[in-house]
Amino acid sequence: MGTFLNLDDLEPFASIEVTKALAMIEDAEAMALLAAPCIAAEGFAYGSAVKAILRGAVLRWHEAGSGALQAQTAGPFGQTLDTRQERRGMFWPSEITALQGLCADAQGGVYSVSLAGPAVEPDTGVVLS
Predict the structure, then answer these.
(1) Which of 20, 43, 87, 90 shows its CA 20 to 30 Å from the CA of 108?
(2) H or E element, residue 104
């Protein structure tokens, strides 16, 4: 893979072991292709936007699980502070929408299909185009 995101793109933000970073990049790009297959098209115009979305997802994944669970008690009162981050999916719904939106821009936008069938001339039964 490495089509959109490279190790150099992550270095300014985090120190990630090379093997781990390459695997994370490969996974992120594979999941992005599932969400928005058009990003693999020849001449795709929004590569830098895809890079930004992927970089955010990979960095969030790298930071997931860090944090702590702290509990304090004072007499009958207690408080728990959980700063751990759970990883639920590669992309947030807004990131999936953004990736799919890049495809919509590349495909020309909205279209419609008639569910009533083709237009037919009432007298002759000839299909109008």
Answers:
(1) 90
(2) helix 93-107
Higher-confidence residue of 128 and 50: namely: 50
Cα separation, 90 vs 23, whole angstroms: 13
Residues 55, 9 contacting (CB under 8 angstroms) = yes
How many Cα atoms sit within 13 Å of 91 on the Cβ side? 24
User: What value, to the nearest 5°, has the Cα angle with vertex 27 and ends 25 and 33?
Assistant: 100
Least confident of 25-34, 55-64, 109-118: 109-118
Does the pTM of the predicted model rise above 0.70? Answer: no
- Taking the C-alpha atoms of residue 32 and residue 46, their distance in angstroms, rounded to an integer, is 13
Instruction: State residue 53's pLDDT score.
Output: 95
- Tell me how far CA of residue 108 lies from CA of 8, 37, 84, 112, in angstroms: 33, 15, 42, 12
